[in-house]
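B., you asked whether I could sanity-check this one before it goes into the benchmark set. Here's the sequence:
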Amino acid sequence: MAELKNDLLLRALLREKVERTPLWIMRQAGRYLPEYREVRAQAGDFMSLCRNAELACEVTMQPLRRYKLDAAILFSDILTVPDAMGLGLYFAAGEGPKFERPLRTAADIKKLVLPDVADELGYVFNAVRTIRRELDGQVPLIGFAGSPWTVGTYMVEGGSSREFSHIKGLAAEDPAALSTLLDTVATTTTDYLNAQIAAGAQAVMIFDTWGAALERDDYRRFSLASMQKIVDGLTRENEGRRVPVTLFTKGAGPMLADMVGTGCDALGVDWTTTLSQAREYVQDKVALQGNLDPATLRESHEAIRQGVADTLESYGTGPGHVFNLGHGITPDIDPDNLGVLVDAVHELSPQYHS
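And here's what the prediction gave me:
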């Protein structure tokens, strides 16, 4: 494969010296871009877009044509894994993802069969290979998956949830059954991420959107332990380079200190924790990614620049910072406003790396 021309992201994730802070944006391929909406309409529906390697490649590349970003991220979804397990994923208009066959009992969980990742999820790896060819070494490609706890909430609840009553009930009444489910998802996710790496992903990230719905002891038991299993099983070197692993629990706060011991290389931080506080939690043992509030992108250009300046200042000097939002960019954002953010990071970050 083509030699990597810009390795700032990979170096920063490993806390190596960089000339400026690298950046990418969660959901950078998304509905805020008119060109994305055109391709999405062409595909017909979201999963058809994910399953078409050429179209998935096209939307992955779109933000790189507009902005000086330091990484591409695979266009896919965290629910590809339970979909491969036969739960009947579908998308209801205005309601988000749903499963036809949610797992409500220990008997349901026992019936789960580990999928053949290469067969059931081959379309994802085709997309990875297609994107790597198209990138031609321009920037690294990030692969990703959902955390077992977050994916498990969808599998048990049957869709999005605010209360998580079914899975929390399962945790209280039959924790062994829940642990079995999380172990099964962790095993499949490990295979899934390793196959992404083999296909060409140069860094991987695990998204734990709902980990903070658990109190700290349950977080360690159900969310963190299952992510730990994945980290332990990942391919950590490929194409002659380290493959950095980032964990992101939205709303982690003080639990960032618990996450350091997993052996990951970096932790994502949302906007509810300052980077200076996060740095204290992790004691510079791992890199940090984040963490501008996505709502800042609705404000004036001056406010966006100030938000970037404040985020960079909060992290401070030294290696180990990847600039990002604290969560995904929202569909209502003016694409020009993201350009202001990108330019500000390029302009303001070198002073922190002298």
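One thing to flag: The two ends are 32 Å apart (CA to CA). Otherwise nothing jumped out at me.
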